[in-house]
Design goal:
Elements (H helix, E strand, L loop, with lengths): L1 H24 L4 E11 L2 E12 L2 E8 L4 E8 L2 E5 L8 H17 L6 E3 L2 E6 L2 E5 L4 E7 L3
Antiparallel strand pairs: 1-2, 1-9, 2-3, 3-4, 4-5, 6-7, 7-8, 8-9
Length: about 150
Amino acid sequence: MRFLLLINILLFTLAPLSAQSGESAQSDSLCKEYNLRIFVRSQQITGICVMESREEGLVGTVINEMGVKVFDFTFERGKCKILNVIGPANRWFIRRALSKDFNFILAHIFNNQEIKTGRRKMWFEEGDICFSGRHKIEYRFTPLKM
C-alpha cells in the first residue's frame, strides 16, 4: 500500500513535466478531435476520430468506444489512404467506400460551408459536421470538448 502511494505521488509530480515537453515538440501541428457516429442501414457505429495536420498532409485514426483502433488514414495531395483496417471491416469494398467518403470529408471539413457533389453532401447541424455518402452512409463529426 505504501508503494502505491509513492507511485501515485511520482506520477502526479512528473506528469506536468512530460506534458510541457510534448507541447513544444508539437506546437507546429494542428490536432482536432471529434466524436464520430457512422449510420449504416439503421445501425450506428460510434467512436472517436483524431486528426493531426502536418507539413506533408493530414494524419488520423478512428477508435471505437472500447479503445480498439478501427482504421488509420492519411490525406496527402488531395488523396486519402485508409490504412490498418480492423479485421471484420478489412474488405476491398469497405476500404474503397471509406477512402472515397473520407477523401471528400477531409477536403472540405475545415471550409465551414455546405457542399453537394453528386450523391455526396456535407452540411452543418447544431455544431456537428454531417456528411452523407454515396452508399447511404451518414457520418457525424461532433467536436470534443476538453
